[in-house]
Amino acid sequence: MSHSMRDGRVHAPAYLPATGRRQFLRAGASGFAAMATLSFGRHAAGADRNPQHILCSGPGGSIPDLVARAVADQLFVTLGLRAVVDNRPGAAGQISVSALKGAAADGSTLLLAQGAIATVYPYLYAKLAYDPAVDLQPVSLASEMLLGLAVGPAVPREVTTLADFIAWIRNHPERANIGSPGTGTLPHLLEAMLFRKEGVAWQHVAYSGGPPAVIDLLGGQIAALALPEGLLRQHHAAGRVRVLATSGPARSTYLPEVPSFVEQGHPEFVVKEWFAFFASGRVQKATVEATSAVVRQTIARPELSAAFAQAGMTPASSSPATLSARIISEQQYWQPVLRANEIRAD
Question: pTM to 2 decimals?
Answer without folding.
Answer: 0.82
